[in-house]
Amino acid sequence: MARSPTENDIRQIYRDTIDDLYGFVARRCDGDRALAEDIAQEAWLRAVRAWHRDGLPDRPLSWLTTVAARLLSNHFRRPGFQSLDLAGGDVPIEDRDAAADRTERRSLVERALARLPRAQVWLLESFHFDRSTVGEIAATQGLSERAVEGRLRRARQKLRKQIEADLASNGDEP
Length: 174
Description:
The protein folds into 2 domains: 1-107, Rna Polymerase Sigma Factor, Chain: A (Orthogonal Bundle); 115-174, Arc Repressor Mutant, subunit A, CATH 1.10.10. It is built from 7 helices and no strands. The chain has helices at residues 7-26, 33-54, 60-77, 93-114, 118-129, 134-141, 145-169. The relative contact order is 0.09.
């Protein structure tokens, strides 16, 4: 951490990072724009408070995406999570059921991801959520493409086992 930021610093960092931060969050929200906006805003509120207290981080976007990922993880782990869109109103039952199924699947995946090693979570999120190619991941990690493919395969297998274990403990079929 470095010096305490000025308001101009904050504005400039916001302009430089908000699109990437929102994209990062939106890809993990399954089309729920309101949730993506709320998470991005909350990450920024926490950033401003922390940065005024502790100084600017070396990599503000990394700081923001880490906070946003934790906020999302906490959101999807909440027991009885239900989107406000599912609360009723003029949404047809079929649409509410489909949205509830998506929410349940997302929650299941989030819980399983939370129990994987960070390196595997990062790899899966980079490839599946951020749409990074194997080549891009290999370049950023200093690995061969073949090594990344093997790690991705093992991470998917471990994720599948976590999900199957969760389903079995709930009495559902995998």
